[in-house]
Specification:
- The N and C termini lie close together (12 Å).
- Helices cover 31% and strands 36% of the residues.
- The chain has two helices and four strands.
- It is α+β, with helices and mostly antiparallel strands.
- It has a single domain, classed as TusA-like domain (Translation Initiation Factor IF3, 2-Layer Sandwich).
- It has a four-stranded mixed sheet, with helices on one face.
């Protein structure tokens, strides 16, 4: 398992999801993508994205105005 990071701070919907989708395509099953976003809509977006794609949303949290996600590639 490898861990990859995506900084999507300052990007608005749908860019955080599009960038995450592009990165996840290049990852092996079991790899984890850590995402940082400042778009409040990304909380619902990443939950729906994982439900739709079958990838696992391992965690969703926030630090001030930054939203943090960990997604496992399935």
């Amino acid at each position: 398992m490898a861990v990859h990071e995506l900084n999507a701070e300052g990007l608005n919907c749908p860019l955080p999801i599009l960038k995450a989708k592009k990165m996840l395509k290049g990852l092996a099953a079991g790899d984890v993508l850590k995402i940082r976003s400042t778009d409040p809509g990304s909380v619902a977006d990443f939950s729906a994205f994982c439900t739709h794609t079958g990838n696992k949303l391992l965690s969703s949290s926030s630090e001030g105005d930054v939203y943090l996600f960990e997604i496992e590639r399935v």
